[in-house]
Amino acid sequence: MKTKDQISSIILLIISILTCLGSSRLNIGSVNNPGSGFFPFFLGMVIGSLSLLIMIKTMLGKQVSTNKKNLLWEFGKRKKKVLYLILALGSYGLLLERLGYILTTILLFVFILKGITSQKWYVVLVAALFASIGSYTIFHLVLKIQLPDGPLGM
Amino acid sequence: MEIFNHILLGFHTALSLGNLIYCFLGVVLGTFVGVIPGLGPVATMSILMPITLNISPVSAIIMFAGIYYGALYGGSTTSILINVPGEVTSVVTCIDGYQMAIKGRAGPALSISAIGSFIGGTISLIGVMFLAAPLAKFGLRFGPPEYFALIFLALTVVSGVATGSPIKALSAAALGMLTGVIGMDMHTGIPRFTLGIRTLYDGVGLVPVTMGLFGISEIFINIEKKIEIEILKSKIERILPSVQDWIDSRWAILRGTLIGFFVGIIPGGGALLSTFASYVIEKKISPHPEKFGYGAIEGVAGPETANNAAGQASFIPMLALGIPSNVVIAVLIGTLMIHGVQPGPLLISEHPEIFWGVITSMYIGNAMLLVLNLPLIRLWIQLLKIPYTFLFPIILLFCLIGVYSLNNNVIEIFIMVFFGIIGYFMRKLEFEPAPFVMGMVLSPMMENAFRQSLTLSDGKITILFTRPISALLMIVGLSALTFYVISWIRRQRDRY
Hints:
Shape of chain B: globular
Strand content of chain B: under 5%
Order of helices and strands of chain B: HHHHHHHHEEHHHHHHHHHHHHH
Low-confidence stretches of chain A: 65-71
Largest sheet of chain A: 2 strands, antiparallel
Number of helices of chain B: 21
Number of domains of chain A: 2
Strand content of chain A: under 5%
Oligomer: heterodimer
Helix content of chain B: over 70%
Largest sheet of chain B: 2 strands, antiparallel
Shape of chain A: elongated
Distance between the termini of chain B: 63 Å
Radius of gyration of chain B: 22 Å
Low-confidence stretches of chain B: none
Structural class of chain B: mainly alpha
Strand order of the largest sheet of chain B: 1-2
Order of helices and strands of chain A: HEEHHHH
Number of domains of chain B: 1
Mean pLDDT of chain B: 84
Number of strands of chain A: 2
């Protein structure tokens, strides 16, 4: 709890300072005549005060030994998977309009099923083809949702 | 009787073949996503939002409302069968529902929750019908100061309802409000915090944020740990409750209806709070409180009834005042606005077919759910056997398609992933995503109301406290806020 709260309060404090600085460039105005920066500046102050409250709480608390449960990542071995998935989703965004929906989706599924969940190859390929062509049929051909065409025209 | 004409108009709208189909699709889909952990009504509506552009706003809202209360039904199924709440509103159901299932009474538990939900939902709807119109008339007297005060109150309630620390919930709401500020300032045209990204000039979209915070971050959390879903091995023999079950749960169902209805009306209150309230009350007045936690049927019937009653009642602030009482309703309001319909006190008089059509469709939908749910219980059990390894890439794909097709803009995908990461860290640091989204939705309304109030009063902020309604709302909100902070400080002091 303690570590989590310390981290939270520091992050909130940073956000609060950045917000107040950013708002001050936008013409804050006054309570009776607020400018564009007034509302965000006020929010920045609120976030700052909340972060101080959390910080005071952690400082009042007794020193708790940092056992495993206090750490941010309780599942150390698997946090890499999250990182891989974030990268995969980012790449999906970058490639989608270049390669088209079907191809990008196949790549995404191959990456997730092989790279993250380590399935057997034939399972990976069948699932990837099934998911991409199936969803293309449902969403594009039946529901008429626009999906980007690639070099293959689909 | 004017109201009967309205109800007739409603049934006329809701019973058209097209709307019946949308209602049916909505409730089935809602139950389905309610059963599947990690795919909730918010994500589903977000995915479908672009598709609804091709249909009329009435049909869209009928379907979305169906998804919402369908998910309330479905969420309880997983609570009872695998001790994993499909939705937050069914957390309480796990306590006694799962115990009943272990004792081989999954059937009665599931059916009493479906029947209770039906009773709570339909009785609550009668209240909605008679209360929403007068409330909307009252709402017409609301000027900017009253709206500001009401939103302020809603935000404090949201933070108080949160299951974790109220200070963290308030922080999440404030961060959400900050996100709501991003984009062009409506009053001056100056872009704020857009970092030069053009997509952000129109503000951060509700859909990518909710999908990121709820859908994507949940997947991040789940793939990090090994999840093993233990499906109940024991056979479900009896589906319907026995006479004794009925006698045991009849008052719980009635009380749950009342609690759900009145808690559901409060903006920001919503279904979650009503389930806790109902459980606590049932346990307190029960002649045998020791049975609670070991499979007392009242502990299932009460909260399940309450959450559906509250779910229906939460439409009142939306339909009458245009203010969302929870995240799902916020998405519904977004859908109405995409269709060019402005929710608020004028909705009932300007679009009676939407108001009465949606309300009557909810009667029909509730009946459909009751008929559907009992025979479908076995199907949902099968569905829960799909391994998560295959489920999560499909959920991901739905989110990707949904968020992209909104504006055919890849930037939205990046925004969704970004908020997925934010949501992941928020969960790690024990901040809840719901107040964040409420803050984000309410922040532009709040700022607007604030500035208009000042224009109205020639720059005197005291206007918030000189008009009776807004003064009352502000005082209630401020007292709630003071109460949280004081009780929080007191708790810290006791602890150390």
